[in-house]
Structures are given as structure tokens and as C-alpha cells.
Amino acid sequence: MQTKILRINPITPQISKIRQASKIIKSGNLVAFPTETVYGLGANALDPKSIKKIFEVKGRPSDNPLIIHISDVADLGMLVVHIPDTAYKLIDKFWPGPLTLVLKKSKIVPKITTGGMNTVAVRMPENKIAQILIRESGVPIAAPSANISGRPSPTTSEHVLDDLSGKISMIIDGGKTKIGIESTIVDLSKKNPMLLRPGSVTLEQLQDVIGKITIHPILQERKTKLVHRSPGMKYRHYSPNAKIILIEGSKDKANDKILHLLAQFKKQGKKVGVMSTENFVYDSDVTIFIGSNFDVIAANLFKTFREFDARKVDIVLACGINRKGLGLGIMNRLGKAAYKKIKV
């Protein structure tokens, strides 16, 4: 299969071009497209055969649920059995945008889409290309990240091409994504709202709108028998080929640990990279300054992972950041990607 690249202006998308992609969705095949978070791998969310292709192409475990993307709030009603008041409050504040809501699914949603569960994850993306593609396709679109399962999520069309060239029909190139990490996910399927995955809609922002939110034990690195109702919870994710070692602690102690490990691994003949949030010069094979504020770090995170791989690094030393606000989402991705975690 030859994968076609369709370049579309993200500011003023050409609807006639997007209709080429919508025809592919309607025919039961796959299209990668940009959202404001990362690139998604889209298929008709209501067609089990199309959804099966997503799992096959990505190598994704069948019990890992997909997020359904809609272009109109009215479409939520056909996908779920009940919309609680808390959902309406969050929708009014954050949709369209990087917030996914988990609710009890309706019969119209195939169980293959939800990983066999009785709940469904839904969001309405802000990205104009994504909105038009969903609307022109005439169906809700299920879209996990457009990468091989477990790899860093793609934030450019080039990342998608690296992983999925020859495996899918089309990639819509809409430029670099804005946010860089996946959407926040909140479970509203039970009485008490629960944060399942942190993102750019922060825990603090959510609490300002609906009050107290329980944090899933997985996010606190605690063992649990609770059902994993969203993507990004059950399996290792976001990982480059290089082994990431995440060091958490005060800046001085963490930096001292990085210097110690750097010397140790270099003696072993390893090619070592450092992912830095400060303009500090390390004696590493590759040092990448990822940014100093949370928005920039999030936007650069997965791109940086892929850059380390392109430069054939064996080990990446990464310093942890504060878990407040967007920092919680960034640390969630770093923790999921890490081969080893060290607290100093």
C-alpha cells in the first residue's frame, strides 16, 4: 500500500481536499490526521471492521480502548446512555478542546471500540482539520495516536510516516500539533468524577468547574484492581528505543545524579543523552534542551524522544519537573516512558 500525503493549511483548511480523506474513512480505511494534541489514526468508530484495522496496524492490545472524536456536541447523545450535569459543565467550559469524557456507552458503539467495556471515551477536538474531517465523514471517528503501539506519540506528519508508511491509506499533513501530549481524560461513568489521564486541561482547572475529583491510583503509582477505562493506563506507552532513566528530586540533587550516571554509563561505552530543562552544558553524547516552561516542554516531549532515537542514543537521562498544572501530564508521560525511575 502506498500512503498518500495530503498537505492542508491548518489555519484555512481546504474542504475539497479534506473530502478526499473523508471518502477513505467512509470506505472503511484509515486516515492519520492532526488534532491540537497529537496526530490521530482515524476510522469509522461505529464500524467494527474499520476499528479492527486500527488495532492491527498499530499492534495495539485489543483491551486498550479508543477515544471517539465528534464534531458536534449533539452527537454525544447517540454514543452514550446518559449525560450527567458534571459532563455538561465540563463541555461548556472545555469543548471543543483537549478533554475526553468517559461515560456509559450506548448500544450503537461496538465493544471493539471500547476495548470490551461498557463505557466509551469521547472528545470534540478543537483542530479545524479534525473538525471538518469528522463532519465530512458523517460518522464519529475513533482515533488513537497515529503510531506503532508503545512508541512516542506523533506530533508531526513525518513522525506518522516513520511509523506507518505503507500501512495506511493517507496522512493529512496539517503541520506541528500545538499541545504535544494527549488529551486529559475524566471518568464520569460513576457518581464521583475520576481523573484517568492528565493533560493540558489541568486537574486544578477541572476542580474549579466541578469540585473534587478523585485521582486514579495508577496516576499515583499505586496498584489497583480498578478497571482501566481509558487509553494510556494499562500498558507502557510513549517510549523511544533508548532507555529513559527519570530522576526526581531537588534540582541540585537531580543534577548531581545525572552527572554521576553520565560518567558511569560513558565508562561502559554507552551512548548517553540528556534531556534538559535548563541551559546547562553536559558532557554527554547528545544534550537536548527541551524548554523551561511547561507548555514548551509538552510541545517538544515526544519530538525529543524521537530525536534521541534518530541519533542512536542508548540511554536518556531526564530530570523530573513539578507535578502541578500541566506538569502532572508531562510527568505522567515521562513516567510511562521510563525504563527506570530514581528519586534523590
Can you summarize the main beta sheet?
Answer: 11 strands, mixed
Q: What percent strand?
A: 15-25%
Separation of the first and last Cα atoms: 50 Å
How many structural domains?
Answer: 2
Principal-axes geometry comes out as globular
Taking all Cα atoms into account, the compactness measure Rg is 20 Å
Pattern of helices and strands: EHEEHEHHEEHEHEEEHEEHEEHEHE
CATH topology of the largest domain: DHBP synthase
**CATH homologous superfamily label of the largest domain:** DHBP synthase
CATH level-two architecture of the largest domain: Alpha-Beta Complex
Assembly annotation:
single chain
Q: Which regions contain 5 or more consecutive residues with pLDDT less than 50?
A: none
What's the level 1 CATH class of the largest domain?
Answer: Alpha Beta
Word description of this protein:
The chain is globular and about 60 Å long. The protein is α/β, with parallel strands linked by helices and 344 residues long. It contains ten helices and 16 strands. The strands form two sheets. The chain has an eleven-stranded mixed beta sheet, sandwiched between helices. The protein has two domains: 4-220, Alpha-Beta Complex (DHBP synthase); 243-343, Threonylcarbamoyl-AMP synthase, C-terminal domain (Rossmann fold). 48% of the residues are buried. The model has no long low-confidence stretch (mean pLDDT 94).
